[in-house]
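Consortium newsletter contribution from the modelling node. Members have asked for a concrete example of what our holo predictions look like. Here is one, prepared for the biotinyl-5-AMP complex that several groups have been discussing at recent meetings.
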Amino acid sequence: MNETRRTLLSIFEEGPATGPQLADRLDISRAAVWKQVEALRDDGFSIDSTDAGYEITGVPDYGAAAIEFGLNAPYTVDYRDSVSSTNDRARQLANEGTVDVAVVADEQTGSRGRLKRSWTAPSGGVWCSVVFEPDLPAAHVPLVALAAGVATVAACREAGVDAHLKWPNDVLVGDDGERGGQKLAGILTEMEGEADRISWLIAGIGVNANIDATELPAGATSLRELVGDVDRRIFVQRLLESLAEQVANPDGVLDQWRQYSSTLGMDVRVETTNRVIEGRAVDVQFPGALVVETEAGEEVVHAGDCEHLRPT
Ligand code: BT5
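And here is the predicted structure:
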């Protein structure tokens, strides 16, 4: 979306505006204003012409302009109907120097989970990757990943689903199944930079939104299955707003994560690249490590796959 159209939308967020007012504020001719208004109509906005001026009376279902309209978060939106992976598109934008952008797609054809696992992402989901340029050392990145998990749970709860977090970042519902619940969403963070300062960080968030369970792998669920279809535009806006809030307040992330987590207090089995740790998960500590009480004493685990064990 070009800057003029973005400014025009932000003026409309304040209320109706006349052609001359718009021409004045945008510093373009009235004919050019009319062209921009027509372009917004082509994008799916309903714009009435009243005595008070032009007024937006209807917003398209989804897309860059629809998500940016009324969004209270410092991100622009790059929308695609179909993309291989929103993380890949985000990486491309990051390498071009674009930050604070949220890549959103209706479907992904080559999306990824952690450790090169595949991620199923048919049309109807919320597939989103945000590029940040945080002033952080690489060692603090796990905190941003937890922040993305917290933001995702917050958005799912606002949509009426009692989602919870399994360490580090699985968004689950209920407590059935091998994973300790059915998987509703997943998070993949990627970064580039030096040990003491990262150049960019991407938080990729995938939420199974308006999708039938039959289109998803076993053990997965969707918002459609749980509460019916959601308005994805509103959902993504809440998700991005919540993410921006968490990222701006890093000191609060761990506490919020503890509140949303189903892992703390559970007996767990964590597989890291070179060992397996079993014990009771007792806390999460900066920047996102799981503290496990084992027979041999307390262990601090920084990365791995965690399984909730059922009581025998
Ligand atoms: C994750 O990996 O949970 C991270 C998933 C991140 C996906 C987002 S979508 C937007 C952005 N663009 C991308 O390309 N990726 C991100 P992991 O913890 O490794 O879990 C992967 C496992 O979840 C797979 O091996 C499957 O078992 C399962 N799975 C695959 N697709 C799923 C889905 N749609 N819903 C639930 N589970 C799924």
